[in-house]
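S.,

Sequence below, as promised.
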Amino acid sequence: MTETSGEFVASALPPREKQGKGRKRWWVWLLFFLGGLCLLSLPLFTCMASWAALTGSAVPLGGGAPRVYREPVRGPAFGPEVAVVVLEGPIVSARGSTTRPVIAADRVVDLLHTLNTSSRVRAVVLAINSPGGGVAPSERIYHALKGMDKPVVAYFQDVAASGGYYIAMGAEEIVAHPSTLTGSIGVIAVFPHAERLLDKVGIGVVVVKSGPHKDMGSIFREMTPEERQHIQDIVDAMYLNFVEVVAQGRNLPLQEVKTLADGRIYSGEQALELGLVDRLGFEEEAVERAAALAGLTREPKVVRYYPGYSSWALLFQSQQPRLPWNLQLQLTPGLYYLWLP
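The prediction came back faster than expected:
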């Protein structure tokens, strides 16, 4: 309203079309932006969908554990299933952030529990390709296998040595590839020592400790003879446990196993002659044996499970250069069921 000559006169208002023109133009720009964003995102989502399709579906584990990928291999679409659990890499307690395949005890145990309680899974095949790893995670997987209510058959691929052989003692039968490397029954303790190297570069370390052996195995000093003997006693006790597990699992005399358990490796054919495996063959034979032990009279559905790595992790995690796993273990103090050439 404006005041003119004592009278109030309504001021001219812009047409409604002009008022709404700016709003319409804003919505048009928003639609263009969203459309362009969708077009740019389409190739990424297509790649992600293709990757997921190639690697199968994801199976959630109990207790909020990460998903494990399953890949149908052959057999009918429906019916009883033989699960092939792919165990590849060193045996560790937990996966961590590495993109390399590992046998993470926490994920393997959760997967075994899921398979054991699944009504569609009738038998399990462990496809092992591992030189072993930590003592505790190896024993954890072994005890989980001993608690299975379904037949378990172990299949040895390229390498199934030390801890890789130890976990197979939880299976009812072992099928080995003729060229596999197995055995290496024993324990190894690794404690890197860099005192002389640090002296050369002029680096000193001050250690304040509550007892004389609190830093036993430290990288900063050499072990005393007393400390070495203490570690040797622990290794001997764990070695005896390993030998007893093999003797029980293979139904062999304890002294005979001790003769074989000097750390040496064996080929699949040698292992068969020594009674360390039941038969030679390939994954198909292992699946057939598992199906027979489960009493299946028709061809089962064969599905592979991969607890050792995540396809999404391989796609998205950074591929930074890393030390070889065997060198990493040699630099990590600890006790291992491990073939460490």
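The chain has one domain: 56-338.

Coffee later?
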